[in-house]
Amino acid sequence: MGRILGLVLAIALLCPATARADRLLDFIGEHEAPLGYGQVYGGAPDKPANLTSMTIGEVLDWQLSIRHRTRSTAAGRYQIIYTTLRDLVDRYGIPRETVFSPVIQDDLARKLIADCGPRPSEARLREWGTCLAGIWAALPALSGPDRGQSRYAGIAGNRALMSETAFLAALRDEPVGTASTAIASAGLTAAPLNVSVYESQLRELAQMNGIIRSMSENNSLGSSVRIVFDRDPYAMQ
Asked: What percent of the chain is helix, strand and coil (3-state, nearest 5)?
């Protein structure tokens, strides 16, 4: 009985930290790949039909085969490039037969976050965030010469897709980037609102943005729309 109670207590203590880590994963994933776990870099040739059913070995082989024909080999919800995926496989002894499923992609992203160390105190939060920005191009550096910008700005169309304030809020596990927080900050509390409807529409807009961005990278947009995206491939943001 004592062991069972100890296990229950341990799970109870770990759950908040796990949930907080998963919210950070969601924040990163929603900005890196609005279309989800099956998304690859829009300009990549020979795109796989179903990325999440491929093995990690097959993903690596595909990335290697296109590496010198595209500006990026980014794949999955966390847009992991060939060299990063190969390094993870080597460091952790991940079998090439492992399916590149959503669960595995989440685990790989957690390993990348762990490379920057555990969530720190407020005094070191900017340093931690800047380390994460060195992994994911959508995140802005929070310190150093690149502060406020993607550390990969201009490479394969990359740029920071959020403000420093929004990124810091996510690192602190504060509400950020949802319809409910936008409505609350505007002071619209007099009438009851179905916030879930607004949040659903925002998710649909993010998906539309990802589709249009991919079409822009593929040069498959209509001429009138392409004029805008030739100037700013992230115009929908």
From this structure: 55, 5, 40
Q: Are residues 99 and 53 in the same domain?
A: yes
| Residue 165 structural domain | 121-173
pTM: 0.69
Backbone angles phi, psi at 21, to 5 degrees: -65, -40
Name the burial class of residue 55, with classes exposed (0-12), middle (13-18) and buried (19+) by CB atoms within 10 angstroms of its CB: middle
Provide the CB-side half-sphere exposure for 27 (13 A, CA).
26
User: Structurally, how many domains does the chain consist of?
Assistant: 3
Residues 78 and 84: beta-carbon distance below 8 Å = no
**Tens-digit pLDDT profile for residues 97-149:** 999 999 999 999 999 999 999 999 999 999 999 999 999 999 999 999 999 99
Whether residue 105 sits in one domain with residue 130: no
82 and 162 assigned to the same domain: no
